[in-house]
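We emphasize that the prediction below concerns an isolated chain of 167 residues; any contacts that depend on oligomerization or on bound cofactors are therefore not represented. The input was used exactly as deposited, without trimming of termini.
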Amino acid sequence: NIDAATISLPTPRLFKRLVKNSGSESEVIKKPLKAASYINRLMEQWLRIAVGIYHKTRGRFIIFDRYVYDSYLAPPTNSFSKQLRRSLLLKTSIRPDLVFFLDAPGDILFKRKGEHTPERLEKQRQTFLKLKDKIPGMQIIDATRSASQIRSEVIDIIWNHYAAITD
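Result of the prediction step, given as a token string:
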């Protein structure tokens, strides 16, 4: 989501607008724009990773919302560029110490935000739940509770983890 990004290159909106406005223009124009947009998205994600590495090497606490694990939600693809992008991001990203999965059934998530369908949200949920053994440090948090209860549990886990690594 371009509007929600706190760290971003100045170009994503430009590329989005150019690709959208190229409409039915010839492929001579559209293909290079899509390629440039693809490279821009990859560079933007690497920028965020680099900023995370910078802060982590200085001992700072970093929170990534969603992170690169969203690529596990995407259906398998035969597109070489998509496979390459997913692979590059997963291999070049810093490994988080903790990963929190805020778990709630699809129907509850749909009632909260109204995005997608309850079925699609439940399918995504089940995909992430299957990743527990694949993603080191993944903590499943019951997100059917109040925000203050969730926040308290997450803060406790973070402090316990910090205490364990500083002993």
